[in-house]
Every structure is written in C-alpha cells, then in structure tokens.
Design brief:
Blueprint (H helix, E strand, L loop, with lengths): L19 H15 L12 H8 L3 H13 L3 E4 L3 E4 L12 H4 L3 H22 L2 H15 L5 H18 L3 H14 L4 H8 L2 H19 L3 H22 L1
C-alpha cells in the first residue's frame, strides 16, 4: 500500500526495522484511520483494549502507535491517550489509488485468489489469542440487526483479522488493498438494496459457522465457506447490474 501522507519528517530520521506483527498492526490501524472508522480528533482505544481486541501483546500495540505518530496519523498525549490527527480532506487522492481503478469483477477475481488461501494459512498460524480476538469481532457482528453500514464494516474487520492471523505481512498489505477496493461506490447501493435484516441474520449464522471452523482448525470447511461467500457476493453484483 502506498505510504500515507502525514507530517514532514527530518531527512535524517529513518523508520526502525519492524517485526511482521507490528507492521501488520500498523496496516490495520492505518486502514481504520484512513477509512474514518476512527474519526479526526477521536481518541483511540487504550493500548490494553487494542491488545485484547487484536490478539497481540501491549508492547506490540505501543510500537505500532509509535509508528502511527511518526507518520503523523495520531498524537500521543501523556495521561490522556492517543488521538487521530489524520485529516481526510487534506489529501487530494486516495491512500490506495489503485482501489479507485478496480472494478467489481476485478475485485472478485482477486478475492477468489486470496481469501480461500488466506483462511487456510490463518488456521495453520493463528494463536489462540488471535482466535479470541476474531470471536470478539463476531460478537459485535451478531449484535447488529438492521444497520447495513455497521455490518459491512465489521465484516471487513472480521476478514482483516483472518488476514492478520496468517502472519504474512505482504498478504496482509494486499488484503488491506482489497478492503479499500471493497469500499468503492459500486458496493454502497448494492448493500443498501440487498443487506436487509433477514439477510444480515443469515450472514451472522454463516460467519458463526466460519468462526467455529477456524476455532476447530477445520481447513476444508472454512475454505468452502469462503468460496460460497464469494459466490453470494457475485450474485449480488449480478443483481445490481
């Protein structure tokens, strides 16, 4: 993903070499900030809350927040926490311009390549605390009854957690681009039309089954779910036309 524009840094400053988990967490939090899941001037969840939600250690969260501050996306205030300083109106172009150039069918092709393999790798690699974090996202999804926007944001977070579980920073970065492309304008009317309360309930049951397959380390069932979910999205795209 192209670098996010932030405040200027001195030429002599060099970003430290980061571990794969820290880089993945930076990608996840950057995506949340750029997508305005965390709005300008909003306080981020505490280090402890982020560590529990994302299934990582607190020192990993602290390193990721250091990087976000270095990039000018947040400001740390002693005794108060971390606050978003990213201004979505201060950029003339998207943080991921390629997402704007990606059509619905192109997106489906890439998802078909990435998602089944992504869930397979996650099942092999995810430690128990990341599975618990995935379960926490599922609980939030199950609490949604009729808000299509809220459900799709949590659906994105669920898939992002699976990507994070692979432990592969390149795959995580690629999937963040997929999420960015999924947010393009063609999806909004499609979901307003089709993501009814009854459909949300059906998706909730399906995601519960997927989570159970991941928790049981059942690769075959989990990958089959991903393939069926792609077919369902393809049907929605066809109906939208």
């Amino acid at each position: 993903m192209p670098a996010i524009l932030g405040r200027a840094t001195a030429p002599s400053q060099a970003e430290p070499v980061l571990g794969a988990t820290v880089r993945a967490l930076v990608e996840t939090l950057t995506t949340r900030i750029v997508s305005q899941e965390y709005g300008s001037d909003e306080r981020l969840p505490s280090e402890r809350q982020l560590a529990q939600e994302l299934g990582v250690a607190r020192n990993t969260v602290r390193e990721a927040l250091d990087q976000l501050e270095f990039k000018g996306l947040i400001r740390r205030r002693a005794g108060s926490g971390s606050f978003v300083t990213y201004d979505p109106h201060g950029l003339s172009e998207s943080a991921a311009p390629v997402a704007n150039e990606t059509g619905p069918l192109q997106l489906q092709v890439v998802r078909g390549i990435l998602e089944p393999e992504m869930v397979r790798l996650a099942i092999i690699s995810m430690p128990p605390r990341q599975i618990e974090a995935l379960g926490a996202v599922l609980s939030r999804m199950e609490a949604v009854q009729a808000d299509a926007g809220a459900f799709t944001r949590l659906e994105e977070e669920f898939h992002r957690q699976i990507a994070l579980g692979t432990g592969n920073p390149l795959l995580i970065a690629c999937y963040n681009l997929v999420i960015d492309a999924r947010r393009q304008s063609f999806r909004a009317p499609m979901y307003r039309r089709h993501l009814t309360p009854s459909r949300i309930a059906a998706y909730q049951r399906a995601y519960n089954a997927l989570f159970n397959a991941i928790a049981a380390r059942d690769i075959e069932e989990a990958t089959e779910f991903m393939k069926l979910a792609l077919i369902e999205d393809q049907k929605l795209l066809t109906q939208a036309d």
